[in-house]
User: Fold this.
Amino acid sequence: MKQFQRISAVLGPTNTGKTHYAIERMLSYKSGIIGLPLRLLAREVYDKIVRLRGCFQRCSFNWRRAYCAK
Assistant:
């Protein structure tokens, strides 16, 4: 059976909760990647994902994305 992957883009004006929505959406799946435009934002999102998921061993941080797998 072929596994399908889904890619979603979260777009909108400033201060509308895009990052919060993307994090919640990604954490509802088994694994995922979030691409972010700023290093500081990527680091903040990584720290938040580790805090929420508790997956320090299975999360990786790249200056442009945060990744977490169950």
User: Anything to note?
Assistant: The first strand starts at residue 31 and ends at 35. The mean pLDDT is 79.
